[in-house]
Amino acid sequence: VQLQASGGGLVQAGGSLRLSCAASTNIFDTYVMGWFRQAPGKEREGVSCITGSDGSTYYVDSLKGRFTISRDYAKNTVYLQMNSLKPEDTAVYYCALGLNIFNYDYWGQGTLVTVSS
Questions:
Q1: Where are the beta strands (DSSP E) in the chain?
Q2: C or N terminus of the chain, fewer CB within 10 Å?
């Protein structure tokens, strides 16, 4: 399985970006897809995930209301809509695939999001 993340870029504070993660095979019915991020000098942290079985979504509390995860079965793609971006959202964002929300076996290459103040 290969995951291709895209959509990062430079945006001003308050702006929006939508990240995409395309999977190489049709795996969404079975797997959980997650988004993680790693800011400079910090550890990687979970952002959000969506289950394949029923589309349940989970978010880290600090990002609820600003970020929205969704998926397109036909395109084997998961999205992360990020609104009201803040400079502290600056990070490399990674998508990942796993069998449950706690363990991920496949990772994308990451896409850089830079939010300027």
A1: 3-6, 9-12, 17-23, 32-38, 45-50, 57-59, 67-72, 77-82, 91-98, 106-107, 111-116
A2: C
